[in-house]
Amino acid sequence: MQKKIFIILLQIAILVGCIAYLIAGVDLNELLRTFSNYSPLHMAGVFAITIPIYFCMGIRLSMLSSKEISPLIGVWGSLLAIGVNNILPARLGEVAKAAYFKQKSTLRFPEAMGIIFLERFLDINILALATLGAAVLLGFGLMGLPLLGFVLACWAILLLIIRRMTTEGPGLSFIPWAGLRHFVRRILVSIEQSLRGKAILMPIAISILIWILNFAYFASIPLWLVDLNLSWAQILGIFAAVYIGISIPGMPGGIGMAEGAVVAVLTWYGVPKTQALALALTIRAFNFIPPTLMGLTVFATSGIDSSTLRWQKTESDEK
Predict the structure, then answer these.
(1) What is the pLDDT, as a whole number, of residue 314?
(2) Are 278 and 168 in contact (CB under 8 A)?
(3) Mapping DSSP to helix (H, G, I), strand (E, B) and coil, where does residue 140 land?
(4) Distance CA 100, CA 297 (A)
(5) What is each CA distance from 232 to 69, 212, 216, 229, 272, in whole angstroms?
(6) Alpha-carbon distance 183 to 188, whole Å?
(7) How far apart are CA 311 and CA 91, in angstroms?
(8) Smallest Cα–Cα separation from 74: which of 107, 46, 34, 31?
(9) Which whole-number Å values give the CA distances from 12 to 85, 159, 201, 251, in the listed order?
(10) Can you name the residues that pair with 166 across neighbouring β-strands?
(11) Helices 92-104 and 311-318 sit at what angle, rounded to 10 degrees?
């Protein structure tokens, strides 16, 4: 209990620190004028670019599940996860997505979690490469190598576990609880099935396409909507900073940390802080408002009870 309170207080302290950093030295009147100058047509165009991203996510999930999940159910589940992750901490959206897939397909909860783990793992691989590319293009050398090394190490561990699997799955004797051991085994069996043969090649290709579309959507905000004079290398640097900030567990949607990363990178480029904050808040608005509204609509109509988001309850249901 004390540890949980400490973590919450630490998260609040980080958020307060980020907010203090963000608003220090900012001209609020200029910030509001920047927002008022946005073209509604351009705003609609930026939103339209996100639509194919969600459909690609649905197709990837369908392929990873050997079509147990339909592409459309994959789209709804992805939106549900984004919506929940944007308002609740600890990446609870992934638990909600697994529960949704269990409800809407023949998959059981551990199998759905295995597919979602692999989906997130593919995204981390692409993000690691983007971070490495941004570091090289911006003159930071190979500063992205530690993240890439971590990803490669995870691949090695994952493939080693899978290589030693029997038909019943890995032994996992180091896990003392039988129920949890069975749960993790079923997750790993699900991952192994998705990696079997050449089945993973198309999901990898779609993951690359998702992140290309994501980058196009992201770049349209500073270049087309906000009209900032940034190079493609600089945009790639901001892109990597934002999504690393969003991916860090803690505050919902990485709020505060992602904005702080954008402002820090932009001011380092020489962009005035007010303009940098305007871009950071605009990115947050597009990443938060539309997907959260759509995701919570899916959640509200899915029939999933809010108690499903408690990992312990969902896990015990599957033992």
Answers:
(1) 43
(2) no
(3) coil
(4) 13
(5) 36, 13, 11, 10, 19
(6) 9
(7) 11
(8) 107
(9) 17, 38, 41, 8
(10) 169
(11) 40
The whole-number pLDDT of residue 292 equals 92
Gap between the Cα atoms of 44 and 25, Å rounded = 31
Q: Helix or strand or coil: residue 177?
A: coil
Decide: helix, strand or coil at residue 71.
helix
Task: Answer whether 65's CB lies under 8 Å from 115's CB.
Answer: yes
Spans of the chain, pLDDT less than 50: 311-319
230 vs 241, 265, 301, CA distance in Å?
A: 15, 12, 42
The CA-CA-CA angle for residues 219, 222, 224, to 5°, reads 85
Alpha-carbon gap, residue 97 to 103, rounded angstroms: 10
As a dihedral over the C-alpha atoms of residue 217, residue 219, residue 221, residue 226, rounded to 10 degrees, the angle is -160
Q: How many domains does the chain have?
A: 1
Half-sphere exposure for 277 (CA within 13 Å, toward CB): 20
Spatial CB neighbours of 287, under 8 Å, sequence gap ≥ 6: 86, 246, 253
**Rounded to whole angstroms, how far apart are CA atoms 155 and 117?**
12
Copy the structure tokens of residue 287: 């990443």
Q: How far apart are CA 282 and CA 172, in angstroms?
A: 46
318: tokens are 């599957």
Residues with Cβ within 8 Å of 275's Cβ and at least 6 positions away in sequence, in order, are 34, 226, 228, 266
Report d(CA 220, CA 43) in Å as an integer. Answer: 10
**Buried b / exposed e along 258-289 (16+ C-beta atoms within 10 A):** bbbbbbbbbeeeebebbbbbbbbbbbbebbbe
Angstrom distance (rounded) from CA 230 to CA 138: 12
State the residue for tokens 């699997």.
165
Residue with tokens 């640097």: 237
Element (H, E) at 300: helix 273-302
Q: 88 by DSSP, 3-state: which?
A: coil
Which residue range(s) make up the domain with 108? 2-318
Q: What is the pLDDT of residue 19?
A: 83
